[in-house]
Amino acid sequence: MNLTMLMYLIPSLIMFACGVYGFITRKNLIAILISLELMLNSVDLNFVIFNRFLFPGQLEGMFFTLFAIGIAAAETALAIAIVINIYRSIKKIDVSEITKMKF
Amino acid sequence: MDLTLPILILAIPITMFLILGLFGMKMSHKLAGILGILGMGTTMVLAYTVAFDYFFSGNSLFISGSERLQHTVFDVTWLQFSPRLVVNFGFLLDPICAMMLVVITTISFFVHLYSWGYMEGEKGFQRFYAFLSLFSFSMLGLVVATNIFQMYIFWELVGVSSYLLIGFYYKTPSAVSASKKAFIVTRFADLGMLIGILVLSFYMPTFNFIELTAPGQPQAVLASTGGATFLGGSVLTWALVLIFTGGMGKSAMLPLHIWLPDAMEGPTPVSALIHAATMVVAGVYLVARMFPLYLMEYQALDFITFIGAITALYAAVVACTQVDIKRVLAFSTISQIAFMMVSLGVARPEIHEGLGYMASMFHLFTHAMFKALLFLGAGALIHAVHSNDYTAMGGLRKYMPITHWTFLIGCLAIAGIYPFSGFFSKDEMLSAMYGYSTFWGVWMTFVAGLTAFYMFRLYYLIFWWDENPHYKHHRPHDAPWQMSLPLIILAAVSCVAGFIPFGELITWNGEPYHIHIEWVKVAIPSLCTAVVAILLATVMYRKKNSLPDKAAAIWPGLWRAAHHRFYWDEIYMFITHKIIFNVICSSIAWFDRHIIDGTMDAFAKVTQKTSYTIRGMQSGSIQTYVWWYLMGAVALAAITCWAIL
What values do phi and psi take at B196, rounded to 5? Predict the structure, then answer.
């Protein structure tokens, strides 16, 4: 069986859609964060796929993905730190209740 | 001519105003009073010097042959609005100006001196002197104006000082409303004057009096308008009538006289200075100043004659029925100024060489002296009995001999009894009126008789009649020397001022006029009228009796109407409140509130409603935004796909 580009792209699309769905519907900050990672990873996957199938002689897509993974790790750490701080101050991580800085 | 004196005449009063106005509160009453009196005294001496120089030095600047010239001492650019529209500030010296300098400074000085006694211990004593100085400055600036715009500016300034001084007792509601009334009425009249000035200066591109009144100028104006008329009057007539409107306001001519009786709410020295001797004759002065222009077309002069004659009779009748002695004097002032106006109105070069002009200025001079005397006398009476009404007086001749004799001299002068000053000036005026038309002559002789009657009615009611029982508790006495001295001096002046050869000094064209009294035709009849009127007043008011009531009962309607000043105030109230406020203003207010404001309010309301409705969209919840964003993206994608396919 020969794998085509579309067979990679469809799971990536499903991953992205799951991420969007989770981002919109979840109330828990951690879950939102996970959904965000899911979207990011699906985009990373797209980079790799396009690089592999459309420009087989080059590596820019691969390396860009590696950078993105590295930066995503840092960003996640930052986000987790913020979530922990919020939890420490109001003992909650439900996004609908974090309204203190509104207006 | 040396510039120092003219500049100082204007500079000293304004400096005094600034000093007393700015630092007055730090001074004692005595210091402020002495400063004010000294300042005004110096100005008076300087003004006398200038007037003496002008009339008697024989300087070729002032007189050529026998004709007195108009001399511009200085004239500098003051306000330059545009290259063509320039307002100058200057000092014009001519016979009437020199005469007015003497009158204003003399009366002002005596009023300053008198106020030292009259206003003693009053709160705001320094403010009073500051305002008096401001008034003197404004009035002097008015009479020396070289151009009509400078005159207009000072005209407004005297209006302001009059307003400030009428409202001197600013805690008394009646004084406040009187000052407002004076301000509004005269300002209303000044609007007419301003329009007149603009019309005149539009056709004659100058404000300067000498250029305005130069021979040949007015004809050029009439030619330039091509004989255009408006409601039967030419441009010149309309301009002059409108300018005269300003004079009607200041000089309290019918129907703009209503402010003057109320202006008596001010302190009595102010009434003497502003509302009897100087400011109220500004209207007469204005007409006299522009007299050569008025001579070009007689319609404006006829208008002046008519207004003046009606006013003179009206005010004289009303004066016969008033209770407040200051109001009697106020109406008497209106009547006497109207006399001057009529005299100016009937002045024609072909009638006794323009005698009316000279007579009017002569009467202005003598009237200023004896009316100031009467007002200051009234002030002394009010000072003694603490009331303005003659009902609180009576039999005062024994208690206040100085006031009594000086007041009597004032009454004799205003009644026109030989040899007091009023006789001479009134005789010249009547002579001019008879020369113009017998009808106006007889009319004004009758008014002169009324004058004698109401003045002696007042005199007898104050000094004879029946002694007021109140005196047993509070014995009235003559005023202190600061108040008595001006009375005595002014009385002395009123005795001798008639013998001044006025015609040699002041005439409409500068040529001397030799006064001669027409005994048979004018003087004897008017003297007889005055004597009969005085005798009638003596019979009716010398001792307490019922004759006055009986006289009032002959025509009760007339008496009541005169007592209520022929309901002019009520008419004005009706027009302003019922018609202007209720009908015109309230409908305009409705339009403003409901249409103009309503439109704006509707805009605001719609915006507000909309924003309230949609403000939920900005929830701050990122998830909702993402949801909307996603939907938008999907919709966009769908539209794109549909468009492509």
Answer: -60, -45
Contact across the interface for B626 and A103, Cβ inside 8 Å: no
Q: What 8-state DSSP symbol labels residue B68?
A: E
- Structural domain includes residue A30: yes
Q: Is residue A23 part of a domain?
A: yes
pLDDT in tens, B357-405: 888 999 999 999 999 999 999 998 888 888 888 877 877 888 888 888 9
Measured distance CA(B337)–CA(B615) in Å, rounded: 74
Number of domains in chain A: 1
Reported as half-sphere exposure (CB side, CA atoms, 13 A), residue B585 has a value of: 8
Chain A residues in contact with B623 by the CB 8 A cut-off are 23-25, 32, 95
The Cα–Cα gap between B447 and B423 comes to: 14
Spell out a b/e string for B511-524, using b for 16 or more CB atoms within 10 Å of the CB, else e. Answer: ebbebeeeeeebbe
B446-449: list long-range contacts, CB under 8 Å, 24+ apart. Answer: B446/B313, B446/B529, B447/B312, B447/B313, B447/B316, B447/B335, B447/B339, B448/B339, B448/B416, B448/B526, B448/B529, B448/B530, B449/B529, B449/B530, B449/B532, B449/B533
Give dist(CA B498, CA B495) in Å, integer.
Answer: 7
d(CA B130, CA B121): 16
Contacts of B620 in chain A (CB under 8 A): 99, 102-103
Q: What pLDDT score does B222 carry?
A: 66
Are the C-beta atoms of B429 and B444 separated by less than 8 Å? yes
What residues of chain B, 598 to 637, have a C-beta less than 8 Å from chain A? 620-621, 623, 626-627, 630
- Give the integer Cα–Cα distance in Å for A46 and A61: 9
Residue whose structure tokens are 């709410």 = B265
CATH number of the domain within which A68 lies: 1.10.287.3510
Provide the whole-model pTM: 0.79
The pairing of beta strand B86-93 with beta strand B67-68: unpaired
Look at residue A77 and tell me if it is in a domain: yes
In B169-283, which ranges are E strands?
A: 229-230, 233-234
* CB-CB under 8 Å, A96 with B621: yes
Task: For residue range A18-73, list pLDDT tens digits in order.
Answer: 999 999 999 899 999 999 999 999 999 999 999 989 988 888 999 999 999 999 99
CA dist., res. B71 & res. B374, Å (int): 35
Helices (H), B24-170: 29-56, 95-118, 125-143, 148-166
**Start-to-end C-alpha separation, chain A:** 58
Q: Which residue of B has its CA nearest to A29?
A: B623
Report the C-alpha gap between B9 and A60 in whole angstroms.
Answer: 99
**DSSP string over B20-64:** HHHHGGGS-HHHHHHHHHHHHHHHHHHHHHHHHHHHHS--TTTEE
Cα–Cα distance, B238 to B244 (Å, whole number): 10
Query: Residue A32: which domain range?
Result: 5-97
Chain A residues with CB-CB distance to B626 below 8 A:
20, 23-24
Q: Is residue A103 part of a domain?
A: no
B480: left (phi > 0), else alpha (psi -120 to 50), else beta?
beta
Of B317, B526, B514, nearest to B429 (Cα)? B526
Distance CA B445, CA B427 (A): 10
**CB neighbours of residue B532 within 10 Å:** 13
Per-residue model confidence as pLDDT tens digits over B242-300: 999 998 999 888 888 888 888 888 888 998 888 888 889 999 999 998 888 888 878 88
B419 prior amide bond cis, ω within 30 = yes
